[in-house]
Each structure stands twice: as structure tokens, then as C-alpha cells.
Design goal:
two-stranded antiparallel ribbon; 5 helices; about 20% strand; alpha+beta
Length: about 180
């Protein structure tokens, strides 16, 4: 992602993890993507698995050279320490990692395309807000319209009246979540 800073435009890099069964997402960004950052992000993701959810055993990854350079170093040690095996996907095979590809597209279209990103702190804020929205409020059809953190859709009792509908806005109204007011 291009980020506007006081010294001009810079590139910021994001690392995205997603659990394919629950659709739970984890995103981290930096302007200096090295093996140490990969290892730190891997540790954060591995320790952030909620109670009751199985720990990840397999990491599907693309062919980025940062992963290869980190396999024997800090990133590889973080993977081994978490008990996660790594599988490198072939070049130009987005369908093999469709959940992550779709999440990245959603982040770009639903969030980042609406902003001029002013620094890495701004990018971190935008991505953390979107990730929280994705994990807590965005219903997924493959989950029976539940959220990735397991909240089921509210039961429909009686007719829905317009004055019972509420809207929660995030990021200045870019992300909207509609819900029914509690009785």
C-alpha cells in the first residue's frame, strides 16, 4: 500500500493471516518487511488464537522471498515454536489461497480505496478497524450468517419496524453495520 509521509510516498507492507474454517483475520503492517518482523507477526498470530479454537497446524504461503529467507531464521523458528508446518504455494495460483485473496480484495475495496493513507499509524488504524469489523460484525454466508468470532445472527422475532433498526458506523461512515434495537 502506498503511504503518504512527510518525506514523500513510501510503500507499507501487510501480512495477512486468515483461518479458513472460521474466517477470522489477523493483519500486521510495516515499512521494513524483514524476517524479524515476519517472526514477530507469526508469534502474535499464534498466541492470539481464542480459547476453544484449534491451534493452526499448517501455513499456506506465497512465493515471496522474505519467507524463504526466514525459513532457516527467525520466521522458521517462530513457525517451529508454534508447531506450524509451512507449505509454499506455486507461482500465480491465487485460487489455492482464495480466502486470503478475497480478504485482501475486501480490505482494498471496502476500506483503503476510500482514503489517502497518511503514514503508517493511519494505515494501522484503518486496518485494525477493518479487521475488527470483519471479525466481529461482518456476517459470512459460509458461516450461516454468523461472524468469524462466532456470534450468531440475531433471532427474528416479530415484524421489523424501521424505528427498530440502528446503524453503527466506522471510519467516518465507510463501514456500516445495521442491527436491530434490543427490546
Amino acid at each position: 500500500t502506498r503511504v503518504l509521509t512527510a518525506n514523500g510516498c513510501k510503500f507499507a507492507f501487510s501480512l495477512v493471516f486468515i483461518h479458513p474454517g472460521t474466517r477470522r483475520a489477523h493483519v500486521s503492517t510495516t515499512t521494513n518487511p524483514d524476517a524479524a518482523w515476519l517472526a514477530e507477526t507469526m508469534q502474535c498470530f499464534a498466541t492470539a488464537v481464542p480459547k476453544g479454537m484449534a491451534k493452526p497446524k499448517l501455513l499456506l504461503r506465497d512465493c515471496d522471498g522474505k519467507f524463504a529467507a526466514g525459513e532457516g531464521g527467525a520466521f522458521g523458528a517462530a513457525l517451529a515454536g508454534a508447531g506450524i508446518a509451512s507449505v509454499r504455494l506455486p507461482h500465480r495460483s491465487p485460487n489455492l489461497n482464495a480466502h486470503v485473496e478475497r480478504l485482501i480484495q475486501s480490505i482494498e475495496v471496502e476500506c483503503l480505496d476510500h482514503f489517502i493513507v497518511l503514514g503508517t499509524r493511519h494505515l494501522d488504524h484503518l486496518l485494525s478497524e477493518y479487521t475488527d469489523y470483519h471479525n466481529r460484525q461482518r456476517p459470512h454466508t459460509s458461516l450461516g450468517f454468523a461472524t468469524p468470532l462466532g456470534r450468531p445472527p440475531p433471532a427474528r422475532a416479530g415484524p421489523i419496524r424501521s424505528w427498530d433498526i440502528r446503524c453503527r458506523e466506522r471510519l467516518g461512515g465507510v463501514l456500516k453495520h445495521y442491527y436491530r434495537r434490543a427490546a
